[in-house]
Design goal:
single chain; 704 residues; mainly beta; five-stranded mixed sheet; 4 helices; 36 strands; 4% helix
Length: 704
């Protein structure tokens, strides 16, 4: 296998295997450099699985759909299928909540998860996506199922200026669906300075299903303006020292004004019809997501020691649609501000021909202030301010260039200040409203020592074995617990954190010059998990009980000739829980977290040097894990039967010259009328919606 530089997690909690499928467009697919984590290392030293979605692959998927949640569902085996909406509810990773980052800056809001963290950046600004699968404490709170880190583009040229210009149209074979998209990338280097500037804009049209009917306006991506800007400036002080600063801004706002016609679950889809009521005061979407980062690197701070410091700030707001479930109605939002620092030192202990040893140590500091309110100012959750100071240490030993051992510890020290507040009066299933009660806030403290250990043994190129144990520590959905409080003080509420133990075993290798594979099995346990369940009055509540999630996943990639490649992946998982904490795990975690088995398959060909064509397939199997209520015949939330479905996407590109390229992508190639999984497992009339019908994207690209 060719030498590849990869970056491992600071704790070794998870390490990496690069799964890159764009070999027909990249000369050296094995040579992937990871920069999001804390230490570069060879691929043969990593003891667990990660998916890396490369720049060419992102661009290829962007030709079909610019929605990042769609790109991820087609490239990450163990990630749940997307909803086709602005919400990424149900798109869990290995059955648990995922922590989303941009260049290491947290985008998720674990204190009040609003399910809008995946759609926080335009794909045109992304160089690659690193998906660390399994519980991880690398970046702190919220990574029960793993981490998705968007690594933004950087300057890779010695020219003073170079760039890529793109403009395109999207549309369906129905009126009103035409959309436009444009992006501009500029990069360059001037003496010791380098820069990257990326701008993108997209205006979507109406969205319709395969029958040409308007899709439900709830969480709709229709009639939306999306803006994205990236500015990154770096300065090489000398050969050992570098400083870099970046700003990333994202905004999405919808002016869709379509009425809602509620259907019947399992029979008639909920659709858009007529004119909306005009009750919204703020456009739906994510009006702002500002990220500022400053980093400093010193490769030789003192004898055998390097230093990396990252300082960051994030300012985020997302707004939901009007709802009459609040007393007097209203629109809710989630507002979050984060400030943090990551300090990392790496010291080489020894370096002999047959063994090497090093120690990585430092600290992470984070302040996260999150609140959920209505646009009229009423609080749905109180103001929550979390401060997390987490020192860590990792030891790594490599023996005979075949055997790697890693082990680390991280101490989580978390304090949360909660303001006094009054609960919001909301609609109950019987048509009455809950009573608003005053709740006294206070201080909550959490402390824990989490650890990891991993080993990898590279026997031969065709068989490399790895295994790891890792832990995650998170205070997940504290805001939802508080907003439904029936106690007048937070001290009486169950707000204990979630500690997840993740066990993973896998094998990977290259059987020949044209075939590589990976097979992974995993088990994750938590003594006190958190799942949405339906109470007797059909209201949603959080169930805290012991959990076990287990599963398998794997992939095969074939490249029998230079002009063609094909392959696929399979993922399966199951989740069980002991509701009464009595050792009886006969109850299952519902489908809002446990996704149906999924097969991804692709074929990519280049019949002539200037033409590339490809076909992607996603097959989601049926999921029939629960029985409906014997009296009412209704499924509880999250327990609905999910039928299987298969979708094909077509993508192609033609290089007119060295500078010009045309591309055409078709989503849902056969215009299949189906419902995404979330329409079924929610088991609610209002959520039973059809998926997007056939839609094409035509783009023109100019490189200079």
């Amino acid at each position: 296998m060719k030498k590849a530089l990869l970056s491992a997690a600071c704790l070794g909690t998870t390490t990496v295997f690069a799964q890159v499928k764009d070999t027909l467009q990249t000369k050296n697919v094995d040579e992937v450099v990871m920069t999001a984590s804390r230490k570069k290392e060879n691929i043969k030293e990593v003891p667990s699985s990660i998916t890396v979605v490369g720049e060419k692959q992102i661009q290829s998927q962007l030709t079909v759909n610019s929605d990042i949640t769609s790109i991820l569902q087609y490239t990450v085996p163990s990630l749940g299928t997307n909803s086709g909406q602005t919400s990424n509810s149900g798109q869990t990773l290995r059955g648990r909540q995922v922590l989303v980052l941009i260049d290491g800056i947290p985008q998720s809001t674990p204190l009040r998860n609003g399910a809008r963290d995946l759609r926080t950046i335009d794909p045109s600004a992304i160089e690659r996506i690193e998906v660390i699968k399994g519980a991880s404490s690398i970046y702190g709170n919220g990574a029960d199922g793993g981490i998705i880190n968007y690594i933004t583009k950087r300057s890779k040229t010695d020219k003073k200026i170079s760039g890529v210009s793109q403009i395109g149209l999207t549309g369906q074979p129905y009126g009103g669906t035409l959309g436009v998209r444009a992006s501009q990338l500029l990069t360059g280097k001037i003496n010791k300075f380098d820069y990257t500037l990326s701008l993108a804009y997209e205006r979507t049209g109406y969205t319709k299903d395969g029958d040409g009917v308007l899709i439900s306006p709830t969480y709709s991506i229709a009639k939306m303006d999306n803006y994205n800007g990236l500015l990154k400036i770096g300065y090489d002080i000398n050969e050992n020292q570098r400083i870099e600063a970046s700003y990333i801004g994202y905004s999405s706002r919808s002016d869709l004004n379509v009425g809602l016609k509620t259907g019947k679950y399992g029979i008639t889809p909920t659709i858009g019809e007529g004119i909306g009521k005009g009750l919204e005061t703020t456009p739906q979407g994510t009006p702002k997501n500002h990220n500022i980062r400053v980093s400093y690197d010193n490769k030789n701070l003192f004898a055998g020691t390097s230093l990396n410091i990252n300082l960051y700030y994030q300012d985020f707001k997302t707004v939901y649609g009007y709802s009459d479930t609040f007393f007097n109605g209203g629109q809710s939002n989630v507002i979050s501000q984060k400030k943090g620092a990551r300090i990392n030192l790496d010291t080489q202990l020894w370096n002999s021909p047959n063994s090497q040893g090093e120690i990585i140590y430092g600290a992470d500091i984070l302040n996260d202030q999150t609140v959920q309110k209505l646009e009229d100012g009423r609080f749905w959750t109180p103001n929550m301010s979390m401060t997390n100071i987490a020192p860590f240490v990792l030891a790594k030993i490599d023996l005979f260039k075949k055997f790697t051992i890693k082990g680390g510890l991280r101490y989580e020290n978390i304090k949360v200040n909660v303001d006094d507040f009054n609960t919001l009066s909301t609609l109950k299933s019987d048509g009455t409203f809950t009573k608003s009660i005053p709740v006294a806030g206070g201080k909550l403290s959490y402390n824990a020592l989490v650890g990891n250990i991993g080993v990898r043994y590279n026997i031969e190129p065709y068989i490399n074995l790895f295994g790891s144990f890792s832990q995650a520590y998170s205070i997940n959905e504290l805001g939802r617990i508080l907003r439904t409080s029936t106690s007048e003080t937070i001290k009486n509420l169950e707000t204990k954190p979630i500690i997840v133990n993740n066990y993973e075993l896998g094998a990977t290798g290259q059987l020949s010059s044209w075939l590589n594979y990976e097979l992974t099995s995993y088990v994750s346990t938590s003594k006190l998990g958190a799942s949405f369940v339906q109470s007797p009055d059909r209201a949603l509540m959080i169930q805290r009980s012991p959990e076990i999630v287990y599963g398998v996943e794997g992939f095969l990639h074939f490249t029998p000739a230079k002009w063609i490649q094909f392959g696929g992946s399979y993922s399966w998982m199951e989740g069980i829980t002991s509701v009464k904490d009595d050792g009886d795990y006969s109850a299952k975690i519902n489908n809002s977290r446990i996704s149906a088995p999924k097969v991804l398959a692709y074929v990519q060909a280049r019949p002539i040097p200037t033409l590339s064509i490809g076909l992607d397939m996603l097959h989601s199997f049926q999921q029939n894990r629960f029985e409906p209520n014997a009296k009412t015949g209704l499924y509880a939330y999250g327990e609905g039967y999910v039928p299987e479905y298969t979708v094909f996407n077509f993508k192609s590109s033609y290089e007119v010259s060295n500078n010009w390229r045309l591309s055409l992508g078709i989503e849902n190639l056969f215009n299949k009328v189906y419902q995404p999984a979330i329409s079924w497992w929610t088991a609610r009339d209002s959520d039973f919606t059809n998926a997007l019908g056939l839609r094409g994207t035509f783009m023109i690209e100019y490189k200079f």
